[in-house]
Write a structure and sequence with these properties.
Layout: H1 2-23, H2 51-54, H3 76-86, H4 90-99, E1 116-117, E2 123-127, H5 132-137, H6 144-154, E3 169-173, H7 187-204, E4 208-212, H8 214-221, H9 226-229, E5 234-236, E6 239-244, H10 247-252, H11 257-271
Parallel strand pairs: 2-3, 2-4, 4-6
Antiparallel strand pairs: 1-3, 5-6
Helix pairs in contact: 3-4, 3-7
Amino acid sequence: MGIAGDITADWHAALAALAWQVDLGVDEVIGDTPVDRYDLPEPIKPAPVAAAAAAPAAGRPNLAPALMVEAPQVDPAEVARAAAARAGSLEALREAVAAFDLCELKKGARNTVFCDGNPAARVLILGEAPGRDEDMEGRPFVGRAGQLLDRMFAAIGLARTSPDAEAALYITNVMPWRPPGNRDPEPAEVAMMRPFVERHIALMDPKVIVVMGNTPLFALTGHKGIMRARGTWTKALDRPLLPMVHPAYLLRNPSAKREAWADLLSLQAHLRGKG
């Protein structure tokens, strides 16, 4: 193969190994052997500055303090709010979210996961954050939990692929980027993305919001405790809101499917005007 071929093969092997570790949630690199930091050499101390050099010359003002002015702090939530407010359409909002660089999760994500389904739907499903499959494909709820979600809502006649608004679903997440290791989003991360979520809901204008899990429940109501809240209708952003457990929870706890079915029937009754 030659030296060039060996280098190319090693490069591709290293890149594949790195991608595999990222998928596993690795976010920090350490050495192969422990480091005895007590055995490290003492750092070299800078030489003291002469008093004459440190003091301002007679008759001249000391300008050093002017060079130490700190840069103003940026509030990510305010930046997000301004960007979201400028978006006049769902497509413009998609571009605003993709351009938002103040969330650290974006640096480790492969794709910005914005939405899926019919924007004319009456029902908006709000999830937590993309998982591995969603990050790779760029669409929400496409892994095992997403497949279960599709079957659940199909049982009451709703589908993300339906062109009929009456039978359609629209799906998005609080976080458009995958957290490392599929951890729960942190409150600060939820707070900075909430303006985008609010604008997303305003532009899509659903008749009903279904939140799947603790993170979207907290994002829209400020409360957690999805097991207590599930199945109980409330309001958020002046719209009816139904909390449900996340399909991933149902995969781990199949016995909870009975309560999830009751929640689906409650949603069906509400859409038919009987809720």
